What does this fold into?
Amino acid sequence: MTNFPFVGYKVTSLPASPSANALYYVLNGSVVSEYVTDEAGVARQVKDAASMPGQTLRGNADVSDAAPADLTLAQVRSMLAIIPQAPDLATLAAMDGSVTPVVLLNTTDGRRGVFVWTSGNLSSFVTTDTRQAVYVAPSAAPTGASGAWVRHRDHAVLHSRWFGTVADSTGVGLGTDNAAALQALFNAGLAWGENIHIDKGKYRSTATLTFDKSAVSGDNGFVPSIFGHGPGDTRLYFDTGVATGIDVIGSTSGGIFGSFFVIADLYLKSSGKTGNGLKIDKVAFCDVRRVRSTGWANGIRLSDVISSKLERPYCDSNVVGIRGLKGTDGVPINAVHIVSPWCGSNDRAGIEINDAATVNLRGGSVEGNGSDTVTYSASLRGGIRLLEQGGGGHASAIIEGVYFENNAGTADLFVFASTAVSSYGKSVAIHGNSFTRLSATTFTTNNVLIQNSTTIKTCVSLKGNGFGNLGSAYTEDVTRKYVAVTDTNNMVSLIDDGSNMYEASVATPAIGLRHQSGLVQTTPFGMGYAAGSGGTVTQATSRTTGVTLNKPTGAITLVSAAGSATYQTFTVTNSLVAADDVVRVCQKSGTDKYEIHVTKVQAGSFDVTFRTTGGTTTEQPVFSFTMHKGATA
It folds into this structure.
């Protein structure tokens, strides 16, 4: 026996002097003949070769020098190790696995690959694999109970092309519908615990693609991940009206720590701005990488997700670009980490996060959002909206290195807390961002707005930010401060360390340092409480009647009465006063001169004792007071 590698040739006729150690495919119209030559170049025809056109030669083969003039197909397969081929799935299913254990599915589409006959009960795999992507049962025993051909794979990854996807879409509503093929891909990945790869191409889908891990193997464990070839190369076009593009469900209830999920490198596009491009629900830990979503109500929506990381999300031309919130199980978000997003041209907001304990947003651009003034009021529009942080625990947010430009609505960055929901304190760091307004007609009222109606403390740090406008279209205005605080109960502590750059003095906030007790302003002309921190109250009935004013500073107008040189005392009820605080009172106005003393300070109130130096004018003098926090330890 002689062992040698064969060289294959495709010809229209057998040469007069064929090469040695060769395999010839002779094509004569629709008739295919095959010849094999030995070391001397002697050709021997392979019988019934027409039944095996285009056979693939593999490796080395043994050929006897004394072989007969004609060889059977079985002999050549045995001697040349040729892999039999099937032009389609029906032909593969009709083959006998005991005779042809290895077959090349030689289709012209993406299903091409080598299948190996595997004995045993594979019925569960065959049932799941409705598209015969990996498991092909014989037509004589279609349940797969006695075995099936199994696709040979180097890695446990499922490719969309094996499921018969056709990448011919040119836009929303155009091309071959791949909904059934892609759903079969998702179902197989979930059932077999294998990651999914949607191949390069543009695919149309007329229905939601559901990735429901909870319906396959319960609440806990690994959730297979979904990968594309990049948001520029793998595009899924969903018909207008599809409720959700990709709907990921991790468990039957929220807050399950065993569920992990990654999705990356896809573009999900629709039109009509309804539903969700990517919806992830009840997944404990999820990682979204380089996903673009366009034309939805919510580009990316996270609900009942404990911890998530979004890396370079690209959400444009939606109603809301990225939205995170409690879902049906009411599980608050523990942590959202968004790295280098691009959220632009969304009708209402670029990013809106509800009820999160921690939001960490670093880098990227948030621009051109909130422009739909017809459908949505200004209070619902803006760049980034952090709502009701602290609903499920002490909260924090870091907004760092983000570029804000040309957003419209309430604010580029809006932090909101109401008494009804937020029950824990929060800390917000706004560092190293750029805030820019451009348009003369479309702009935010404030670049940063902190709104708090709770009695829970909020600490805000402003450091190294730049505020201003580009070009001459937008005009700065005193009613549109760069930074503003709406603080019903004086619970916001806002720290500006002096490193922020404010372009126009007319819009520069009168805020240097804001404590729980109000605004403290430091200027070259002095230090004290800034506008907005104080209040006024007028005494009723008599000059010993108490007053209530829950402000750290303010003015008390006494009742109209004649002055007296005899000491009189009234109580000021003030919820901000603590027992160790120092309160100072002075006369602001009045004809008579008054001696004024603070004779008692306790939690929630202080006493003011006063008399004239001898005057008896009937009038309403005004006393001013300031409160300073004190401590004994």
